[in-house]
Amino acid sequence: SFVPPRVEGRTRLGVMGGTFDPIHHGHLVAASEVAALLDLDEVVFVPTGQPWQKSGKRRVSDAEHRYLMTVIATASNPRFTVSRVDIDRGGATYTIDTLTDLHRQRPNSDLFFITGADAMNQLMTWKDSEKLWDLAYFVGVTRPGHVLEDPNAESGRYSLMEVPAMAISSTDIRQRAAEKKPVWYLVPDGVVQYINKYALYSREDSQSFTEQ
Ligand code: ATP
Ligand code: MG
Q1: Which residue's CA lies nearest to atom 27 of ligand 1?
Q2: Is the C-beta atom of 174 inside 6 A of ligand 1?
Q3: Which residue range forms the structural domain that includes residue 69?
Q4: Tens-place pLDDT, residues 13-52
Q5: CATH number of the domain to which 151 belongs
Q6: Is there an atom of ligand 1 within 6 Å of 160 CB?
């Protein structure tokens, strides 16, 4: 499908939203691959506020922990940055608000919203999906265990991309940490150390770590 070409004087900004509880190599590989394929200048990672999709299912780690793990994981990549926009807005995060705020903050950027197969399928069923097309170009990436459906929307402001298959989820990492199994090499080393430092997922009730 049609990918917006580079426009002189405008920055190509990838946007990777997520709970990042914790951030893992699946997120990082997806962002890196899309950045290369679409010639993005920067990818901004945007940790959510308290996500409504997950309320009632489990307690999401404190925003500050999720934010700091995202900073640790992305700090060494000169094209990766982290935004506090959803955390500082507070409450549930809606993609429409994320994109609206980033537009206001970065008027000289064209936004490319990067999302895994599972989240892409959800996104297109949301009631604001019409407005979303105007705010960003959408990039749905492959994810093991999920079928990447073609959203088949009229605007066509999206494309589907294959990225290296990383069968990693935050849910699995939380579960492994709770069971004292290793999480090395699933997340960056600094994130392993951060999880251990604050005993983030070490609670006994490992049932609360199961979802989706
Ligand atoms: P959880 O299990 O808590 O839902 P997650 O691993 O799905 O965590 P999220 O923070 O929910 O991570 O995901 C943020 C974004 O990254 C979503 O668009 C999701 O589809 C995408 N994503 C997550 N893991 C992968 C992966 N292994 N490969 C490709 N995309 C991924
Ligand atoms: Mg998820």
Answers
A1: 26
A2: no
A3: 11-168
A4: 999 999 999 999 999 999 999 999 999 999 999 999 975 5
A5: 3.40.50.620
A6: no
